[in-house]
Amino acid sequence: MKNSRSFFGGAILMSASMLISTVTFAQRLGGLPRNSIVNKVLISNGPKGPIQGGESAVTDMVLLDDGWVYGSTKATWGAENCHIFRTDGDKVDHMLNLTFKISGQTSITDITPGIENTLIGCTSTYDEVFDNPDQSYEGGHLFSYNATTNQIEDFGVIAQGQGINCITVDLQRNKIYGVTYPAGHLFSFDLTTNKIKDFGEIMTPWRVKDLGRVSWRGVPKVLMLDDAGTVYFSTYYRNEVEMVKEEQMKGAATSYSSLEGGRIYRLSYGDEKPVFTGAVIPAQTGMDSDPIYENGIASAIRSHDGGFWCGTINDGFLFKFEPSTSKVINKGKAFQYWNLKSLTYGGDGILYMLGGRDEDNSWIMSYDASIGSLECLGWPENTAQCSVICADKNGRIIIAENLRHSFMWVFDPMKINE
């Protein structure tokens, strides 16, 4: 018995030692410093909770004037409901089941602050619904959500049978701008008159089937708005190139389409048609011609000194766009992964970035504009697949997952060196 106790005691000590080594090794491989992750919160509430499994994939988060970070979700794995929640970094409060209020909507695709503690949001549905002619979809809705009263106002369907991919709100002029999905039309909605204006197709989407999943690539993911009411977005320029005579075959096409990605367009307030600014986003040569990849803007945030900080989709470059001069300033990339999905400022004034492929680990990076320092800080966990980050009222960074059972990590940059 004594030998048995010694054996098991040794096994316990060995297991503890291996566990410590594993944690240290994992951190060395890329984890954020352990002291900097101050909390981890589960968003879904189990089979009887208001946010069930398959309904907690986070699509966006914003900080409102009441000091809470409000978030939106989408349904996955065949679930049907999408939700609005709020968090202070310590807990998650369920606020609203949006699908109960607006039936047929399985995803809140974008939210942005309105006036007086309100959110403006938009909805969509599964890609499989758009790809199946036997399934019907009414169309994506615009809505406002009052965080004080916990009530929504439904502005209705924008385009029959189409979802809404992204929006921006011009509060000074009472306009919402958005892009439909998958058709890729730019539109505006007048909050005073409720009139919808369609500015036409700004991107002919590519239908891509990858590992059995269908999506439409190239539809703008973000709209940028300046103080003059001008809307900016990235898209492709389609150019018909005439084939040389030797390439032409009898009865076949005499030209082919050349897609030049990453062009930044603008729609000035009052104009009828977007125009090319002349600005082209940074890209690795050769990759933007591959139809599986998108060369566009995945995320954008206003810069403290004017212009916009932007993250690219397929290469993961950080760049600054100056609307007044249409100038693009490339700051490079902190890691080899593409897709800078989300940007936010921390309490230390540093720009934090979420990067990584959709089906792979998510990484946190930073850019300190005061010294030009671009760094890769690590991941919250080595299996985390996240979609959005947002700073809370204390300047901590909330990192939200987009899986069937989604977690949030609270990252405190001030504790990195502790």
Describe this structure in words.
This protein is mainly β and 418 residues long. It has a single domain, classed as YVTN repeat-like/Quinoprotein amine dehydrogenase (Methylamine Dehydrogenase, Chain H). It has helices at residues 2-29, 98-101, 127-131, and strands at residues 37-42, 57-63, 69-74, 83-87, 92-97, 107-113, 118-124, 141-146, 151-157, 163-170, 175-181, 185-190, 196-201, 206-210, 213-217, 224-225, 231-242, 255-267, 275-280, 297-302, 308-312, 318-322, 327-332, 340-345, 351-355, 363-368, 373-378, 386-391, 397-401, 407-411. The strands form eight sheets. It has a four-stranded antiparallel sheet, with no helix packed on it. Strand 25 and strand 26 form a beta hairpin. The longest helix has 28 residues, at 2-29. The chain is globular. Residues 1-28 have low confidence and may be disordered.
